[in-house]
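User: quick one
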Amino acid sequence: MSTARERILAATTELIASQSAEEISTRSICAKAQVGAPEISRQFGGKRGLMAVVADRGFERFLASKRKNPRTEDPVADVRTAWDSHVRFALENPHLYRLMFTPDGEPKPQAVKEAQALLLGVLGRCEAAGRLVLAPAVAGQAILAANVGVCLMMLSFPELFGDLAVSEVVRDAVLGKVTGQAQEGGGAGQAAAAVLARALVGALSGTVTVEDEVVQALSRSLDS
Amino acid sequence: MSTARERILAATTELIASQSAEEISTRSICAKAQVGAPEISRQFGGKRGLMAVVADRGFERFLASKRKNPRTEDPVADVRTAWDSHVRFALENPHLYRLMFTPDGEPKPQAVKEAQALLLGVLGRCEAAGRLVLAPAVAGQAILAANVGVCLMMLSFPELFGDLAVSEVVRDAVLGKVTGQAQEGGGAGQAAAAVLARALVGALSGTVTVEDEVVQALSRSLDS
DNA sequence: ATCTTGTGTTAGCGTCGCCAACACCACAGG
DNA sequence: CCTGTGGTGTTGGCGACGCTAACACAAGAT
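Assistant: Done. Structure below.
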């Protein structure tokens, strides 16, 4: 038999899989945990305190599942898969997710900062690779806010936002913005403009031919 | 003296300016509305029903404030100001906003669809102007989800998301994605690439000079 | 005059979160 | 050996909650 505190947490975690935090009564928790009624107050200082701990435990699972994601050589792609695993977690644990990201009053789960710290790690790699056009802090806030918004709308209004296409659109939008790449060939357009401009200048000044400049630029882009 | 139903709604609207929906007790509502305790059940079928009506009234105010926004000749700019007024409404009515966009259980406010319908109207003008690269329905869902996400994070974690910069980043990201324009000069970059390409072709084929093409393109862009 | 509709009043139900008080038991230190 | 001492279970109850039944009353419609 484990300790009372762990039994209460296990029971609550089990109940929140099928009920919202409000719908769960402390009495039902105590019954399932085989614990007296005053135990929750003793251990957690009340229902809100218990729920805050449950939320933090949820964040641990959340972060653990994210840490399992492979860490490829493309940090931006890693951010993309992190987004998708975020959405998956929300859809698989709707009530827990709402408890984590829409807390009512104090105390609020403290682990949101850890989630952002994890995201900031990947974004740091993005910046080191020169893929960021924004400060990692702002980029992280933007990504997290958009990600949470998509998930909450999918949970609250599934008939309006049930489609995963919305998630992909917003994800690519924010990622494109943060990395400075336009989404469909926009970055290529900028690069083309730069190449052509350089080629033009060279050609007009007579130093090189347009063909040489374009060929060189193409070979450079194929290398990277 | 107005009707009991209206007094209850007015009292609730007044209370929700400083308290969350959970924190408000039906008894406090009845006291302020000078109404007997059973009146809420009679009129709204219970507290949840009352809150759903309050949320729908909130949506009416929300939409009314949006309809006051000027309707310029640039529909994309109109979407942008709609985003900003959305954020302003959320910050000015935090508890009401959370009631509107994070309902717990049934019945859910039905007016979210009206909000999306209003957004779809502007997006229809965008599409008519050839500014959309996505279906208006998907674009509307993406914009609304991202907008709500930013607001909810600002309300739930003000110490992490208190900055309006996040809102602007996400707004420009989604709007850029939806309109197919790169965010900062990306559209200009694409246009430059097209102009230069045309100029190059013309110059290489000997039909026109580079200068003529560029000057013509510049004068065209200055006209529009 | 009667009926309907909306409203106010009283009393009470069952549940909720929480707490005080006490009893029990294992385990370390004297 | 006792003796705290801390963690745990039990009982009973407090005040507040949402909600409902039952009844009374007034005004307008029929």
